[in-house]
UniProtKB/TrEMBL annotation:
Protein name as annotated: Solute carrier family 13 member 1
Lineage: Eukaryota, Metazoa, Chordata, Craniata, Vertebrata
Regions that span the bilayer: 42-69, 81-99, 119-138, 239-265, 285-307, 343-362, 382-399, 470-501, 513-532, 553-574
Main location: membrane
PROSITE patterns (UniProt xref): NA_SULFATE
Localization terms from the record: Membrane
PANTHER family: SOLUTE CARRIER FAMILY 13 MEMBER, SOLUTE CARRIER FAMILY 13 MEMBER 1
Domain of life: Eukaryota
GO annotations of cellular component type: membrane
Organism name: Macaca mulatta
Keywords attached to this entry: Ion transport, Membrane, Sodium, Sodium transport, Symport, Transmembrane, Transmembrane helix, Transport
Topological type in the membrane: Multi-pass membrane protein
Similarity field: Belongs to the SLC13A/DASS transporter (TC 2.A.47) family. NADC subfamily.
Amino acid sequence: MKFFSYIMVYRRFLLVVLTVLVLLPLPIVLHTKETECAYILFVVAIFWLTEALPLSVTALLPSLMFPMLGIMPSKKVASAYFKDFHLLLIGVICLATSIEKWNLHKRIALKMVMIVGVNPAWLTLGFMSSTAFLSMWLSNTSTAAMAMPIAEAVAQQIINAEAEVEATQMTYFNGSTNHGLEIDESVNGHETNERKEKTKPVPGCNNDTGKISSKVELEKNSGMGTKYRTKKGHMICKLMCLCIAYSSTIGGLTTITGTSTNLIFAEYFNTRYPDCRCLNFGSWFTFSFPAALIILLLSWIWLQWLFLGFNFKEMFKCGKTKTVQQKACAEVIKQEYQKLGPIRYQEIVTLVLFILMALLWFSRDPGFVPGWSALFSEYPGFATDSTVALLIGLLFFLIPAKRLTKTTPTGEIVAFDYSPLITWKEFQSFMPWDIAILVGGGFALADGCEESGLSNWIGNKLSPLGSLPVWLIILISSLMVTSLTEVASNPATITLLLPILSPLAEAIHVNPLYILIPSTLCTSFAFLLPVANPPNAIVFSYGHLKVIDMVKAGLGVNIVGVAVVMLGICTWIVPMFDLYTYPSWAPAMSNETMP
């Protein structure tokens, strides 16, 4: 038993060593460029899937192994680690830093929830809409981390209101207060003891919350209390959690900058097919927004039906008096919004720059009319979405946010400098350098596959798939990606599969976008497990969900997502990119075979 315990302790070390040694005969015995590159690809893939090494550390392996095996010189490999994608990411993170620093994201989320109302069904739709909108521009993780505490507070208020109604009814019938009900009226009453230690009290509770929470905790520890007052209360908590997790992922589908997988695909595609200038911020939004909107609405209906039932008559009943629960829910949202105070100068400037960035992205090359990039017709293709992102990003370091003052020896307060909207230190704390390195490693891996001829070899070996209907090939690749992304990180999955799927499309003489677009979108469909992506892990940590809840709900959302993507790729996306025609910008496959 002691031997096995040692194996478990050092399992990652053993996995790294064994992977390198077990696969070593591949390049030694065959000794071709293709097999040497395949060896590196297998090693990197296993490390990414098992996370035996940190993802970004694994991403550095091509820079070490390609020069050693004579596939690419070190200078050429290094150039793959910083591309146009990284400049775009820097500009977007500047925007995200300012939005979160000045709490603009919280104001937008609360305002949207206030607009839709407090009926549970409409409330969840409000949370999903606002979270999805924010995740279009912010990272999915930070959006979920911001929205979840608000949703948690609202869910708790609904549970508390139900307890108050029951307590009032008991008092009316029995002539005295039921102290058991009074004890359970705690803002934190539904939390586990572990959550109590890790989280702060939720804003908006009354002055007796601390006292009542202590009573509840004592009662729970004695084994007499219950975690939730009613099954409906528990279902509301589950519903709120999953709405936040799934909508933060779905919203990221709509823009190139919405999630790292979209950015990785865009950079890979533009690098592999430089003559195709059809993929930009505007064209991506045009085809992905309808898909994301349909997925969001169907997911809302599925989650609502799964946890609370879907009563159309109740939802659309006009002039109905609000219940106690709805009033309590509206009150906590209103209080949270009032805490933000009136909108400040910094929020207004950030909002203006945010809108300006979006407009410049859309109008650069909209397709149906000439965009502002036509002003630089002498240098076609020079200005990209990263140009816009950097321009706006630099303004965040330049525009004053507030004056810095000091007190002179005479006691006079004078201004000596100003503070910009964001500082470099704040930007650094938000910048996902690990993702930047991971993506760079993916680009280096793709370049190595091209340079060694492995991509062509894979494409030729996959060419028999051309006998299958194209829709079936797309469905198989989409399901494969969706399954793999549940156990591997999304960026690692798309980085690993793009160099395989592109040669496949070329080998069977199909427009590469026909296969790559649905596969890229499906990479984000990691809805089944808490470990599948960070938003899932964030909501799972609140203690309301079990793994089976997420599997059951996520399976339905996965099916909805793949079905909508398949519908889109066969309908409205086809004329946008002329998907039924093999384009001139895609190369014809060579007949090279692997020795």
